[in-house]
Predict the structure.
Amino acid sequence: MIFDKRPRKGAFFFLLQSEEGDLYKITIEHEEEEVKALKIKFFDTVPIASSLCILKSGFLFVASEFGNQCVIFFFAGTNPLT
């Protein structure tokens, strides 16, 4: 399982990849130390990665194990990672 974690105000999320290459966004919403919600959302399918890196500029870099590397750009206002 490969993941990247990003904090947000009142929540944080993980981007997880399955063995088949499917990416899932797991969001945990909280108030102080109490978890309010856990959301799981299918995100995309990319080559199986050895590493994922989310950049503040709106890119997701996928360092592939056996294929080409992949860079995904999120258009302004439609970034599902925020």
